[in-house]
UniProtKB/TrEMBL annotation:
This is Hyalin. Residues 1-23 have a biased composition (Basic and acidic residues). Residues 1-47, 493-517 are annotated as: Disordered. It comes from Dankookia rubra. Residues 34-47 have a biased composition (Low complexity).
């Protein structure tokens, strides 16, 4: 299973029950903050769905137009105080990588349990009437446990289920796969991705953009189309399905995908495929001798190239780039000289062929970096927590690391992320990919306290929603345009210090959703 910290991911209006909890304060950070937020050009944010717990209904889907008055419970899927779903973006193995996954027609699929049908796939279009059970795949109160929702790029979503009729489950049937366009009639089983084995099934998926999908299947790389009755083996890598280590499949956007695999000769190294046997080959043996470089974290730049991390045994785990040729697969920068490696994480594209990531050069600790795939264009953005790393004792945190994380591009060349500094605590930061343009957005808990922003979700138009705790209202949804003046709490959904635990912020299509109200 791919380390979710190195995947890139994808990384989800009328109200059903209007009540006071949905009309909480829209007070912003600082005096005079308005209840609405606008993009730098003056546009209002698009409407979006998310999950929250108002203290009465449990965690349920909500919808907002970016104002406190326009933020409402979408539907109480599981009546009463119990949550209807996990709505988690943090456990991709169990519940899928994102809470709400786009399908066709402005609809989003997600997992929920209404206490009648068990854990099943649901769908919403951002309205109460359009939020409903998609399919009862394990009829009755049993659960199908939908997981690993994967957009195919054509308005359809591939997902797996691990449950079944009473007395059956993963141990008996393994993982079954389904394809949906977000409608009941457009939801069907996809046997081409199944093995009939409880131990082996499809793993990583990469749509190639021409209707074909390459995917890992135990020790095999396979290819299929959404409508094919079966899949084809592109290449088998190892005698045992336990040691092929296939994974990190990442489409390059040109009909090819990069991934890592162990062919039993070179160790775990980067490979390339176009979905055919002839077009599948080792990119480069970065660590000759069979030990492998353990290439990981492939991130497509949109021009046929990809950045990734690898350990060639000389430089430690560092930043590499490939243009899908052996000659063009090269070390970008030895950020931390020597064999220790720079502890790279995330590699998130922010536009202009650049990625923002976390790295440790051995001098400044774990801090935000940027790269355009060249040595000269790879640099420390800011030493947010100044000073070298000093390990802490029992109960004392290590010093010198800002631990940048939850990096989300805004779509306008900027990215938001969470980071820690000793004067302002863990707060929201923004970067345009330059040192001068990297700064804290707002100190929501003034002083050394932390608002601990999380679940950052880009909304479009240079805006984002996120969850934060300002020290008085608990963890609630906030809106930002990347400036202090444009950052405010959206609503106090669960009044008091408990907070609503808002997460899964996903914009609704601008041209397809109806106005809220």
């Amino acid at each position: 299973m791919t380390d979710p910290r190195e995947r890139n991911a994808i990384t989800a209006h009328e109200h059903a029950h209007a009540h006071d909890h949905g009309h909480g304060s829209g007070h912003g950070h600082g005096p005079g903050a308005s209840p609405g937020c606008h993009a730098p050009g003056g546009a209002s944010p698009p409407s979006f769905v998310f999950a929250a717990d108002d203290g009465s209904h449990g965690a349920e889907p909500w919808v907002s137009d970016g104002t406190a008055a326009g933020t409402h419970l979408l539907r109480d899927i599981r009546p009463g105080p119990d949550a209807s779903g996990h709505y988690s973006t943090g456990n991709a193995f169990l519940y899928g990588a994102t809470a709400f996954v786009p399908a066709s027609g402005g609809r989003f699929v997600f997992e929920a349990n209404d206490a009648t049908h068990g854990d099943e796939p649901w769908v919403t279009d951002g309205t109460s009437r359009g939020t409903q059970l998609l399919a009862d795949l394990a009829p009755g109160p049993e659960s199908s446990f939908p997981l690993l929702f994967t957009p195919l790029g054509d308005g359809r979503v591939l997902f797996g289920t691990t449950g079944g009729a009473e007395g059956t489950g993963w141990a008996e049937i393994g993982t079954r796969y389904w394809i949906t366009d977000g409608s009941a009639e457009g939801t069907r089983e996809a046997p081409q991705f199944e093995s009939g084995s409880r131990f082996f099934g499809a793993g990583d998926f990469a749509p190639l953009g021409d209707g074909r999908i390459v995917f890992t299947f135990a020790s095999e790389l396979r290819v299929a189309t959404p409508d094919a009755p079966s899949s084809e083996v592109v290449r088998s890598f190892a005698a045992s399905p336990f040691n092929a280590d296939l994974g990190y499949l990442t489409a390059l956007g040109d009909g090819r995908a990069v991934f890592r695999a162990d062919d039993g000769i070179h160790g775990i190294e980067p490979w390339i495929t176009d979905g055919t046997a002839a077009g599948t080959h080792l990119l480069a043996d970065l660590n000759p001798g069979g030990d492998g470089s353990f290439a990981a974290g492939f991130t497509a730049l949109g021009d046929g190239r990809a950045l990734f991390t690898a350990d060639d045994s000389l430089h430690g785990r560092e930043l590499w780039i490939t243009d899908a040729t052996e000659a063009g697969t090269q070390l970008v920068a030895d950020i931390r000289p020597g064999a220790n490696g720079s502890q790279l994480l995330y590699l998130i594209p922010i536009g202009g062929g650049r990625v923002l990531f976390s790295a440790n050069d051995g001098v400044h600790g774990e801090e935000p970096w940027v790269s355009d795939g060249t040595t000269a264009g790879t640099m420390l953005l800011r030493d947010i927590y100044p000073g070298p790393v000093r390990a802490g004792g029992p109960g004392i945190p290590a010093l010198g690391n800002s631990f940048p994380g939850d990096i989300i591009p805004l779509g306008d060349g900027r990215a938001l992320f969470s980071a820690f500094d000793p004067e302002q605590g863990q707060e929201l930061w923004v970067s345009d990919g330059t040192p001068a343009g990297t700064h804290v957005v707002a100190d929501l808990v003034p002083g050394t306290g932390s608002s601990s922003p999380s679940s950052i979700g880009a909304l479009g138009r240079g805006l984002a929603a996120f969850a934060a705790d300002d020290g008085s209202t608990g963890r609630e949804p906030w809106i930002t345009d990347g400036t202090e003046a444009g950052t405010h709490r959206l609503a106090d959904i669960n009044p008091g210090a408990a907070g609503s635990g808002a997460q899964g912020f996903t914009p609704l299509p601008l041209a397809e959703h109806a106005p809220i109200g």
